[in-house]
Amino acid sequence: MGDINDEDIKNLIAHFSQKNYEAKSTNAMDTAIMKKCIELAKRDYECEIVYNDTGELCPQYPRQLICFKKEKDLFSGEYMMFPNESKCDFSKFKQKVIKASVARCRERFPVPVLLYKNRHICRSATLSGAAEVYTRLGLKYIYFDNKVWSDKDVKELDVEEQEKMEKNWTFLSYVSSARRDDIDLLKYLGVEVISDLMVENKKQKFGIYITSSEKIDKENRYFDFTILSQPYPGCEFFKKLRRNNYVADDLFYDWNQHFVDAEISVADKMNGDIAAKLQIKWDDYRKWDLNTITQNYIQLLLKYLTEDTGSLLIHCISGWDRTPLFISLLRLSLWADGVAHRSLTAHQILYFTIAYDWYLFGHNLIDRLSKNEEIFYFCFSFLKHICDNEYSVHVIDESFDVIDAGDIATNLSVGSNKSVFSQNGSRHCHDILPPGQIFHLESQEDELINGNVMPSSPNRDLVTNNGSPRSPPISLMNKYVATKRTSPVPVPGSRDNGLPLRARSVSTGSSDSSFCYVTSTGSVTNSIKSQNCTSRLSTDTLTEENLKPNRRERLLKVRQIAMSAYSQVIGMTLIH
Predict the structure, then answer these.
(1) Residue 273: pLDDT band by 50, 70, 90 thresholds?
(2) What are the φ/ψ torsions at residue 104 (nearest 5 degrees)?
(3) What is the per-residue pLDDT across 315-327, written as a single tens digit (0 to 9) for each?
(4) Nearest CA-CA partner of 118 in 88, 93, 92, 84
(5) Does the annotation mark 37 as catalytic?
(6) Domain extents for the chain?
(7) How far is CA 424 from CA 1, 289, 532, 535, in A?
(8) pTM of this prediction exceeds 0.85
(9) Catalytic residue chosen out of the listed positions 58, 316, 387, 533
(10) Cα distance between residue 44 and residue 344, in whole Å
């Protein structure tokens, strides 16, 4: 697949603004978009494709659901190992979906859309109310000739699942049965935390409750899950963003509206009250403007991802406005940290998140633009507000040792002898690449001049075309870089003298043995404990495409591409 460029982004947004996606009525452009998404996903992950060709599972879901199974190492191409390896093999995923789909509004069942350290980040709609459940049940009963499931659906089930279905199902108990199947699907995906973005406990239309939610389940069937009630303004609120000339500062939601009855609830005694660790006054959420509430909610979700809390499910009501907003922001944030979609460029990750998170999962951009509800615009405009490292998983995770990559870059740049280490040597230069990437010291002939590495061969990545030295590829580091530390062990392997590799310092005349740190994921990373961080990094497998700038630069690059394309294709009308 060719590289994604500005024109591809503009063409995608133009198509998005002219057509609503439905699985059963796709065209050549939709097919091409789906194909590109699969290709981009497979660059960094082993994926299982679950087919929804005619919308039989859900009409507003992609025809091909991309389920992320394992993450590939950026350089070796091998699958990365994590302590909490996912137990979900997806072999029975479709079977469980067939049974559970009516449990959720518009049959938008939980589906995994992102993988982080073998934990799935899933999306869905909220729970269906009894009225919708029985309405869909009745329609199926008529459509399938006095049957609840089609013969095709039943064939998808193995004998054991068919027996369970026949034993447990009755018309009057169908809501309870659907809830049990929904819980079974969530546990199959390893979900332990549910983020509910609804401002209502139940959605009501024409005096009838059409949806429910896990947080107010009367029978407390979801007691095994940590349920985060994070009330967040619906798409209607984003009219105000347009009226405010697209400025979200000091833009407040009216929490006194008659239908708003959900309260924030993020206390989690089961996992040690993770929200309290962020030192945010959660009870003040009604005083937060649009930017602040989005920042705080994103930070909370990222905090849960850094804890060992299992997979995460995010949903609003229908799962196609607020849900893609947070899914997209999480995907881009993790990408900017170098821990998701590691090989993708800014254009590629932007294309993927617009196409997969928004368009193919049914966001109705045509309708939203006609009503000036520009939540899609806000998603990418907002990126500048999560550039800081307090939103980085490397910093949020309190078990990480954090060092400033800018200091390392200065230390390793040509002509600098500034050290990033304190006099007592307490700071270490380790894991300066995203987890899973391993660099090694080059030969002992690689001299260090003025605290900088001078490779012995001019045909190295650290040498320019004219033979002059250049700084090593520190741009691959995020602004802050870190790793979970274990005890140092000698570097495996040796050179001709049988001794461990050493970094030699001409300026100081000292040398120290090289050490590796084994991270929590099992990756081996270099750490040189010396007065100066002066190791030569191997760049044999690096390409310019893989040399990533820091978090802020990456997010602002995505934002710039998105804003430029949006303004050219959709346009922005300012109110004077």
Answers:
(1) confident
(2) -120, 150
(3) 999 999 999 999 9
(4) 84
(5) no
(6) 45-344, 394-542
(7) 51, 45, 11, 19
(8) no
(9) 316
(10) 8
